[in-house]
Amino acid sequence: MEATHPEPAKAYIDSCPGRTALWRDDSTWAQNLVSTLPGDLASSLYKQYVFRWEKYVKRNGQSRSANIWLRRQVQMITSAIAQFPTYIENLRNEVKRSKLANDLAAQCHNILSSGSEAGASMKSVFEEMMNIPNQWGFTVGVPMQTISPEKGETPAQYGQRVQEVLMASQMARLISDDWWARKLEIAYKRFCEHCRIIAGKVRKGVSAYLSRIGLRDYKERKLANKRALAQMIAKNEITGEEIALLEAVEASVSNPEIRRHELMVRMRGFEDIAQEQGLMGGFFTATAPSKYHAFIKDKKGKAHSNRKYAGANPKQTNQYLGKVWSRARAKLNRLHLPIIGFRVCEPHHDGTPHWHMLFFFRPEHEQLIRFVLADYFTREERSELRVSHFDIGYWASCFVKETGQLSPITDHDLIEQTAKRISPRFDYKAIDPEKGSATGYIAKYIAKNVDGFKVEEDEEAGMAANVTAEAVTGWASEWGIRQFQQIGGPPVSIWRELRRLEQDEETKAGISAAKEAGVKYQRPVKSFLELKAEKPLLEVARVAADSGSWSMFIAAMGGLFCPRKEQPLRLIYKPQENKYGEAVAKLKGITNHIDLTMISRADGWVIAKKGAASAKSGDSRAPWSSVNNCTEDLNDPLNEVKRTVFNHVQRNGIEVDIGGAAAIARGDKIRTNKGEQVWLDKTDIGLQLRISKVVEEYEDGWPGWDYEEIPEPEPERTYADIIKSIPVHAGGFTPPSKEYWTSKK
């Protein structure tokens, strides 16, 4: 905190001696309380506290409500800070995050080296390394890989090898400072946005869905990405074909308009085939208990701080909803109640997610599906809905076990009263075809969460939908939340690959003729049965996808409720090595498993800068001191580059074996036993071998910076309890001893 603090109107405080003493005591207490927080957060909270203190004292002569509010805010922010096993100041800027990422990668590398030298098992080393990301709450995801059984290998041996490959993939990421830097940046950005939610900067009347800073950063990232894409091309080194990368991206589902069209086509296809099969539609809305909401709205639509808020962020709330849904869906499966449709996740004005679900199901299953979802989504904090377990128990007892139908003697009024009381948490509406289609019902929610197309006003935010749509997509990007999810039915990935395939000659001729005549091409209409009698099933599915008929595509894939394992078409993949040396699965096309395969993705495509002769191999690197120049081009055979790298590092006394040289030749960074990083960098004069030294931060800041102009707050001792037992910097990290590894055996 600065030496001068904001305070209520001086004339108001001085007008009463008792009020002066009250402010003196409360301000001292409040300043001490917020002093445990980073400076910017402390300043923001203290200003809000002053406003509330004056408001409550004027209203009833007491400051108790303002003090309770401040104590709760500080507790929630302190809890958010406690998720990081380091001082929060170590994450404040890119320089500090980069240094910390280097330290954490070095810690993992030291564990790997010491365990290897001591002869520890791979599992023991892996478990020891995983302790570090576990302290941060980071998961180490790996891509899908192609791991084929070897000749003479037993199932147990194959399973063991798969586990070892996956462990090696995770360990490779843990020794990468780039991996740690990305994780730390995401975690810190979300922490900052969470603090803004707690501080009231994300709500109706201020900035709905996403804070102003968060929205600004999202727009800047989008603009930077667009500028970068505009400078790149996709080039096929085999055919010589070139495509502007920005045009390719804008022609994909990354384009909001195309994504909205695809979602509506799929939803309409579900509805068409559901009507053919006599299914009905139901619209469900589920939200989290009150303790997950930072702000609530009164009857006039004004946002107020929620006293029940327990400090959860949007990501945690969405994970809660996902966990409830997984349990409810498992229950539906056990009861043999199939459903298909879509789930839309959108934010409340304060960023808290809630779900809209449009499902199709058999009419005789309606009431039981409604009850199961209502039961699961209201189990937590049910008392706040004024509903008891007796009410839910009565609802459950009304179903006849043998049929799953409501008993004739059911008190429907009592059930509807219960349903009305739980409606703030869980609501259900049956779709009436006479009033409108199911697709039309959900169209508003799809558009509002994509681009605001033809939605006049966003009632949740009280603003135009085309304005708030960007904040909604920014919210989903910030918190890593999936907005749309298909429930049941065939996978859309096959549909998209089929649409990539070249059209048949008859269709191409028809399109060409229509274009010459200046009219719109009208595809000859044929039913699924007619096409199935004339063409292979894979071609029928391709025609359905090309014509935009999701209902015909469903039929070609085995029907609405066909299990995934019984669907006739599958994607096929080709193993390809990535920068971690993993044989990742690269999508190639579609197959029917019998006699027909269609390749949708050609080989030879690389990403390159406009006018550049060679492919872009990675992000631009900071210019470290060069060791020597290697003038081989990136397109030379890998083994030549590998030999050149290996011979060079051996001559210069750098401890890298042939495997490390191969990794460098592939474009990867490796770390030597001395803690140095070695990699190849593409420059205008060819390839250069780079070595990075650990860059230490000066105690008094970087030379040339005026620290009178740019103050850096010192870490507060109040964070010491959080990191007491956790090492932060590699310099203070001692790898496990040989005796330790022996005990692990």
Summary tags:
single chain, 5 domains, four-stranded antiparallel sheet, 13% strand, hydrolase activity
Can you offer a commentary on this structure?
There is one protein chain. The chain is built from 26 helices and 19 strands. The strands form six sheets. It has a five-stranded antiparallel β-sheet with strand order 8-3-7-6-11, sandwiched between helices. Strands 16-19-18-17 form a four-stranded antiparallel β-sheet. A three-stranded antiparallel β-sheet has the order 2-1-15. With 745 residues, the chain is α+β, with helices and mostly antiparallel strands.
Q: Any chance you could write out the topology, listing elements then pairs?
A:
Blueprint: H1 10-14, H2 17-34, H3 39-60, H4 64-81, H5 94-117, H6 122-136, H7 155-174, H8 177-198, H9 212-230, E1 232-236, E2 242-244, H10 245-250, H11 256-276, E3 280-287, E4 295-297, E5 303-305, H12 314-334, E6 340-347, E7 353-361, H13 366-377, H14 389-397, H15 412-421, E8 426-430, H16 438-448, E9 457-458, E10 463-464, H17 465-479, E11 484-487, H18 492-500, H19 505-517, H20 528-534, H21 537-547, H22 550-556, E12 570-577, E13 583-591, E14 597-599, E15 605-609, E16 626-630, H23 638-651, H24 658-665, E17 670-671, E18 677-683, E19 686-692, H25 720-723, H26 738-744
Antiparallel strand pairs: 1-2, 1-15, 3-7, 3-8, 4-5, 6-7, 6-11, 9-10, 12-13, 13-14, 16-19, 17-18, 18-19
Helix pairs in contact: 2-3, 2-4, 3-4, 4-8, 5-6, 5-8, 6-7, 9-17, 11-16, 11-22, 12-13, 18-21, 21-22, 23-24
